[in-house]
Amino acid sequence: MSMTTPASGTVSAAENDVLLDVRELSVVYASPGMEPVQAVDRVSFTLGRGEFVGLVGESGSGKSTLGFALTRLQKAPAQISNGRILFGGRDIRELDAEELRRQRQGGFAMVLQSGMNALNPVRTIRNHFMDVFRAHGHVGAHERAGRAAELVQKVGLGPEVLDRYPGELSGGMRQRVSIAIALSLEPQLMVFDEPTTALDVLVQHAVMDTIQALQKSENFTAILISHDLGIVLEATERVMVMHEGRIVEDARSVDILERPQDPYTRMLLSHYADPRAETISIPGFVDMGTRKREGKARIDVTTTRPTVSARQARSADSAIVVEGVSKVYPAPRRGEEKVTAVSDVSFRLEPGEALALVGASGSGKSTLAKLITGVEKPTAGSIRFGDLDVTGLRRRALRELHKDVQMVFQDPYSALNPLHTVEYTLTRPVVNYTGLRGADARRRVLELLDTVGLTPVEQFAAKLPHQLSGGQRQRVVIARALASDPQVLIADEPVSMLDVSLRAGVLALLEDLREQWGVSMLYITHDLLSARLVTENILVLNRGRVVERGETAQVLRHPSDEYTVSLLDAVPNPARAKGAR
Amino acid sequence: MKYIAQKLGLFVLTLWAAVTLNFFLPRLMPGSPADAAIAKLSQNGPVTEATRAAIEAQLGVPTGSLWDQYLSYLHQVVTLDFGVSYTFYPQTVSSMVSTALPYTIGLVGIVTVLAFVLGTLIGVAAAWKRGTWLDSLPTLTGSFLSTFPYFWTALLLLFFLGYVLHWFPTTGAYAATSTPGFTAEFIGDVLLHAILPALTILITSLGGWIIGMRNAMINTLGDDYVTFAEANGLRGRTVAIRYAARNAILPNLTGFGLALGGVVGGSILVEQVFGYPGIGYLLFNAVIGQDYPLMQALFLMITVSVLIANFLVDILYGVLDPRTRR
């Protein structure tokens, strides 16, 4: 690619009103003895005062590195190797440490990705504000208390949070507090680095609304860094798309949506769809209803040899029956209420069926997964797998159950031991559950890799987790779950940590397992779009109760419960952004 | 307040349990000290009934029910009456312990606290100036010195500073010629005698604290709240002390509690090498002389000191970390 300047559709701010002017900026990660990695590659753009710009890219695109460089927060081994960053006409690369520190008040501020961890756990919120006021002296000593209260109010919190410690606040509240602290600097430029990624869907939506409202009322210039094109298109007027260290497209949000120029932008866009639409198609995928109508499988060719029992062998297999199940946890502290995580939930998961369990965090969906796998015991109700009463199982019997019911976890980055090769990771469960040894076990491991599409299998078997991408890791996790030839997979948010471009592949794999081999699946998620793609039936949970159930397409297209509607509204959707404008 | 009351309650409870165990464990063992003494004697010939009675009278065979014994034992513990030492007859155990204790606490206790404070401060500086000489110099010397075996450092110091250069006295807590009392002369003498053992403890333990604190702080320096504090333009000193160091010290407190608890019990080696008349020296002699009353009192002391140290660290934790207060 020869594009060093942004592609067509560039919005250049009026010359006299430029706040930030970045020219040919490069950032490299240089560690001694290692090949330097070019994270940001000759990026140029300008930002007008009062603009709200999105910076979008998948993991590894260099977007966060760029954000840190713009605020001079990059730390070794990252270093700016080339270019200029003119902030209000002055190159911030030339500022010495003290000038830079002063510049942070009334200059540029940053809100970090994990706002939950951005606050000092041993200082009260009030002290966080006082530290800022004392460091810069821009607020008189008498006005400080009032100003702090005013600032937390701006982000929608009451003054009582000032006396709390960060550990006493929820994730959303902490992120709001860190936005308020950044605001207390009265910055001209705010950089938001994935401000809502670690938050629950519904909270995410509310925090984004706050950010948008503040940007208008306080009138700062803002950069919103996100992996989620949907969120960015909804919030900002202009979007820069980053890929492999370069800005591949820089255009108004409307143009990105309607006339995306770069193939990468088009690819990102193609993975968005409205879960409410009549038919949905993302690359490599059509929604289940449409497929059924047209009577075709998602894929035409059967994957080579089966490593899980063929579908026919399973026809007589057992359903999971959950009846009137409740789970109440004892009060976290004395004098507080007991926590009802799951309340009177009943459903059946038939052999070969795919059932979605959706809800925001705290809705009890992960607790249900623990109950079904026997990790926790329900307070009331019964859970049966075929003739087996799951709730009464002891350790040894649980092991038998886990032969048939396996979990796939959310975070592929921590679900694999970084010290073990893929082969070792897969051999353990194969040996434990099937009793195969030596060459037989190895053959089985290679078959599993083949099933999950990690080919050439010999190569992947020898790899360590860090040599794999997120999607590949999640495939290994799925292969591990398949090792015992289970009848049921319980997939807890299996794609939420993955880049959009990788999600489709993993979803397709889950779908194949169900369609080709008859593995039934309980798909736990907050992501309604993926639920629509891979499940037939859906159960919407709110505070431990089932508020809505039915065919997935039917429920999502015509939701009857308010909670379902709010979940649907929280789905970032570029197309809706267009409608709103 | 509620937190402190809770911890205090727990402290009293564990203290009672330790004291009780100290009573029951020896009684669970078969035989008695008298039987042991008679068995020894009987190897040389038959033991008459009169000898047996004499031995039992000398050692004091318990009378009354186990419960009565327990109550009188509790009473003795509370009034610090541990009986008379066998080896240093007719001194009472309590008077011996109370003479030795100030030396141990004064020397090992103070030096342990000093090593922790000093090591933590140096560790903070090293982590904050990572990669500079301020980091490499203390880290390297610290890890080098702490690999020296304890007694080896002690012997080296004794040999060079004491024997060759005659800068410091080589044994005892004060010179045989000076009279104990609250005079400037005597105190100066005690301090002079304390320097070599103190230096030994400092040299061998400082490195661990430096490295522990440095590594913990390098971790917290990478935490988001430190980055965010920098992004907010807080002064370097504030970020280093109130954000990074303040959080890094928390895990080290546990180690500090263990070190404090080991002060009384762990002073044997240093006091033996330097002929320092503290608890460790006493314990060593009690074991050698099979002085049961003294040993029992000392073991109880060691247990209690570990409990007190843990209690203090618990309170410190409560003060420093709001998350533990809930």
TrEMBL record, chain A:
**What PROSITE patterns does the database record attribute to this sequence?**
ABC_TRANSPORTER_1, ABC_TRANSPORTER_2
One Gene Ontology MF term: ATP hydrolysis activity
Q: Which Gene Ontology terms describe the biological processes this protein takes part in?
A: peptide transport; transmembrane transport
In terms of domain of life, where is this protein from? Bacteria
Please tell me whether the keyword Transport is annotated for this protein: yes
Q: What are the UniProt keywords, alphabetically?
A: ATP-binding, Nucleotide-binding, Transport
DNA-binding in keyword set:
no
Fetch the CDD domains from UniProt: ABC_NikE_OppD_transporters
Q: Which InterPro entries match?
A: AAA+_ATPase, ABC_transp_ATP-bind, ABC_transporter-like_ATP-bd, ABC_transporter-like_CS, Oligopep_ABC_C, P-loop_NTPase
Can you give the residue ranges of the ABC transporter domain? 22-269, 320-568
Protein known as: Methionine ABC transporter ATP-binding protein
Q: Which organism is it from?
A: Mycetocola reblochoni REB411
UniProtKB/TrEMBL annotation, chain B:
Output the GO biological process annotations, alphabetical, semicolon-separated: transmembrane transport
Query: Record's superkingdom?
Result: Bacteria
The UniProt record lists the ABC transmembrane type-1 domain at 101-313
**Main site of residence?**
membrane
Please tell me one Gene Ontology term that the record gives under cellular component: plasma membrane
Q: Where is the signal peptide?
A: none
- Assigned keywords, A-Z: Membrane, Transmembrane, Transmembrane helix, Transport
The record gives the membrane topology as: Multi-pass membrane protein
Cell compartments where the protein resides? Cell membrane; Membrane
Identify this protein by name. ABC transporter permease
Q: What is the lineage of its organism?
A: Bacteria, Bacillati, Actinomycetota, Actinomycetes, Micrococcales
Q: Which family does it belong to?
A: Belongs to the binding-protein-dependent transport system permease family.
- Membrane spanning stretches: 103-128, 149-170, 190-211, 253-274, 294-320
Keyword Transport (UniProt) = yes
